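FAQ

Q: What does a record look like?
A: Structure on top, sequence underneath. For example:
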């Protein structure tokens, strides 16, 4: 399954166009390598997604062509979530 479609169907990112834009800017790594929106995703892959000041690492558990909202969470597991530190200058 394409990376951008997986992110949309799993509801990690709401719109496929946004997922495509983020991937094409090099802000998503699949198994440690920079991925484009057309990169194939398989069960067991680890995705590192950079959202602004937050980096989330997820593992793909299941691939479904379409899901209901309650089933989307079964497609992945969050391994870690880190927030970038901001310097507080006064």
């Amino acid at each position: 399954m394409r990376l951008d479609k997986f992110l949309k169907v799993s509801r990690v990112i709401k719109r496929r166009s946004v997922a495509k834009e983020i991937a094409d800017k090099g802000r998503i790594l699949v198994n440690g390598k920079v991925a484009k929106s057309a990169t194939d995703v398989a069960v067991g892959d680890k995705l590192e997604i950079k959202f602004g000041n937050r980096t989330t690492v997820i593992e793909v558990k299941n691939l479904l062509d379409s899901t209901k909202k309650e089933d989307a969470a079964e497609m992945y597991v969050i391994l870690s979530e880190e927030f970038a530190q901001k310097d507080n200058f006064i």
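Q: Is there anything notable about this one?
A: The domain at 3-83 is CATH 3.10.290.10 (Structural Genomics Hypothetical 15.5 Kd Protein In mrcA-pckA Intergenic Region; Chain A).
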